[in-house]
């Protein structure tokens, strides 16, 4: 199989798997237990916390392990203060937009900031937004569909100091440098299975001066921010994946960008094809495009029959559903948006696979 959907999930690195295996067999103790077997697993979690912290430039105490990016986003946006205004962009991940919709139905004030046709939040329009106090802002660092990278540090500087700023960095992690302090945010979400680690593990990075209200109670795990016995093997895997992502960041980024440029050069030779967010900074591994007159879901299934795995860039089904909310927010015409296909490259991909994809794609045009 030619796997070109790494923004959905990455294969587990063999080095990560080897780090995890002892904690699925020999070291099975509960990390909260005081005897030796428990202390060993607690020590493994502490090491993983330091590895994850190093990847984003924070102290280990700022890392709260969760079950994944979705829970990290929910924890970041959770507050029992009904006065808190929530401000999000129009292209957030569903784990943010769906939560915002629920909060709005519950009476919370929710505002959505528009983006331009490249998917960028307009800094001037954003800074002009009326802020009520208290307020919580959530703008993703890199979009999971287009790969468009937001100027988070600049956006943060336009907000009053008392506003809590959260960024979903799940797709950015391991592909571009992600430094919590440099971004200037108070909360940041990340996930293991986007960086060749296991599924079912993520983290919320928090500012040491900003209080977080727990979603889950009933235990003192994760500094009482997230009750429940830790998923030790997954956390260990996340830590190892973070360590590798940090040491290999430059080489991975260079390889992915090279493959992306090769792919885009070939795509630009095809008729009626549009690469979305083409004129702004994007993740080195992500290309989303549309082809006029083509149904994206049908193209996806056709490529699957040729053993090529890609993602449809739209949330629609072949029975005529709605196009991707991200592309709609960008002002992309519905027919073109429904034709969208996303390719997200990984470190195992090769130039030969890119050529094979393009050759196969041409048979559908």
Radius of gyration: 21 Å
Distance between the termini: 22 Å
The order of strands across the largest sheet is 2-8-7-6-5-3-4
Portion in helices: 25-40%
Count of domain modules: 2
Percent of residues in beta strands? 5-15%
- Specify the CATH class of the largest domain: Alpha Beta
Which runs of at least 5 residues are low in confidence (pLDDT < 50)?
314-319
User: What's the CATH topology label of the largest domain?
Assistant: Aspartate Aminotransferase, domain 2
Shape: globular
Q: Overall mean pLDDT score?
A: 95
Summary, kept brief:
36% of the residues lie in helices and 14% in strands. The chain contains 13 helices and 13 strands.
Task: Note down, in words, how this protein is organized.
The protein has 365 residues and is α/β, with parallel strands linked by helices. It has two domains: 2-8 and 249-362, Aspartate Aminotransferase, domain 1 (Alpha-Beta Complex), CATH 3.90.1150; 14-247, Aspartate Aminotransferase, domain 2, CATH 3.40.640.10. It is built from 13 helices and 13 strands. It has helices at 14-20, 36-56, 69-77, 94-105, 123-127, 152-157, 180-183, 232-247, 249-267, 296-305, 325-329, 334-338, 351-362, and strands at 2-3, 63-66, 85-89, 110-113, 135-138, 164-168, 187-191, 202-206, 273-275, 286-291, 308-309, 311-312, 341-344. Strands 2-8-7-6-5-3-4 form a seven-stranded mixed sheet, with helices on both faces. The protein has a four-stranded antiparallel sheet with strand order 9-10-13-12. The two termini are 22 Å apart. The model is unreliable at 314-319 (pLDDT under 50).
